[in-house]
Please model this.
Amino acid sequence: MSDRPNTPLLDQVNVPADLKRFNDAQLRQIADELRQETISAVSETGGHLGAGLGVVELTVAIHSVFDTPRDKLIWDVSHQSYPHKIITGRRDRIRTLRQQDGLSGFTKRSESPYDPFGAAHSSTSISAGLGFAVARDLGGSPEAGLGDAIAVIGDGSMSAGMAFEAMNNAGHLGKRLFVVLNDNDMSIAPPVGALSNYLNRLYTVEPLQDIKQAAKGAVSLLPEPFREGAKRAKEMLKGMTIGGTLFEELGFTYVGPVDGHDMPQLLQVMRTLKARATGPVLIHVQTKKGKGYAPAEAASDKGHATAKFDVLTGKQHKAASNAPSYTSVFSKALLAEAAVDDKITAVTAAMPDGTGLGLFAERYPSRCFDVGIAEQHGVTFAAGLAAGGMKPFCAMYSTFLQRGYDQVVHDVAIQRLPVRFAIDRAGLVGADGATHAGSFDVAYLANLPGMVVMAAADEAELMHMVATAAAHDEGPIAFRYPRGEGVGIDLPERGTPLEIGKGRIIQEGSRVAILSFGTRLQEVMQACDRLAAKGITPTVADARFAKPLDEDLIRDLAANHEVLLTIEEGAIGGFGSHVAQFLAEEGVFDHGLKYRSMVLPDIFIDQASPKAMYDVAGLNASDIEAKVLKTLNIASIGEKRA
Model:
């Protein structure tokens, strides 16, 4: 405890209502102490550091002016909510962030009444805030009451179409609603797109100009220190369009830009707007991601996500890697294909480094496209590239590709366009928990006509699947791979295309056949080692493809074994369901085959280490061993030999 920061005023804040006892100078000090506490906590847990440091003053200002939890504060994405958690009764647990049985790294309704709406994907806050505002006016009465709604959304999240859909609806309904545009000129990667350029142009406007009111001369709405700036804005409006015109055309009163680290200015603005706003208001706040912690400010991603680190130096304590990550192997494989095929392009949605496209962007800048947080657009853009004769690789996390599912169906699959989907973060991902788990992509892709769906069992297989996708022009194709490091096997210089729909036998055995899809193959082999000690040697096969299935392989396994067990890192409705459907139509179950399918359970699994999450899911080696023994009617592991 001795190296914890000294926080005498923050120590007096247990809930946001406590902030109302302090004057503005003390609130400034509380913000400083809150920043130090956030840095200290994340140094012990790891997590999203930079985003939270950028909104410390904003967090204190909103909670001191508004009346949470009656007023609903909604953090978009919510990876910036650590300071919010500290001052909303969770400081005693803040050092359990992202740990098993600890606090979530995002807002979570079941965790606190101060988290009125859970989030970990972007661009949902305005829609939810408008829902609260309408519920309020219709007499809704949730447990904590219902007052104002305040949505805090980043400039990166604002690039998504859903944010504009919500603003358009909010402007039409005219409900009192506060949207805080947290403009830090930085999402995870540097901002892209016309909106980012538009916000940059707004920086030249005097601070805190309510353009609409200034144009009408009604500058009395503003606090005294800012009236002169508003008068100047009125003069600037003559003959030119500046300021918040875009937002005002959507029906919002625009206020800004405001310095998000100037506590007196923030407090004055919030108090004024709380007292006087009647309809939807957009407050444009400029902040600095990583603010107040030099190592984060100096980092290229502004300390977006860190491992545990040393507070004094910022040096992260990362475990030594024994093998390259799957993401880096994908990067290497795609570069190898692009070097010999100038039609290969890459598309990602605000995650160039997370998806391994950083090197591709450096080497082939004209062929790499970061579309911002806009998965729907990204998928259809890739479809257009494919229709135009290119070979696009659409690289997105499984959990984010969900956001573009209609486009996968309508714009890609129906038109049989050869878009290559590189699906990172397949399966359970650890500290980010259920919101980021890649649980559903096999189920939601393998039911689409003409879609080829692959899963890599190891990093060499991933290289072969990248090559397979590059060579496949007959329609859409997808391959999935997990977060984290590979097995550590030797890698080829370049992958070799696989025969579509053909799996491989890993080990010959008898009685039991285990058909694995994806990287659970390593756990299968560990289970087989344990089973061998009990006199059981299963046949093991790597399916490689969930669609099309290797029907000959499945028939053969079913015909020559008592038990057929499928294993996958995905939800029900995926690979195992397709195998079961095939076997049923073949009439195999009419003749006594014992078929079992191991999938993710029908629950959302909270954050923990990946191993612990797979323990909950029942998909580790010991679970596979137990499943085989139970299916063979050997009741207790170690009880008897087969």
Summary: The first helix runs from residue 24 to 45. The longest strand covers residues 177-183. The radius of gyration is 27 Å. Residues 214 and 231 are 6 Å apart (CA to CA).
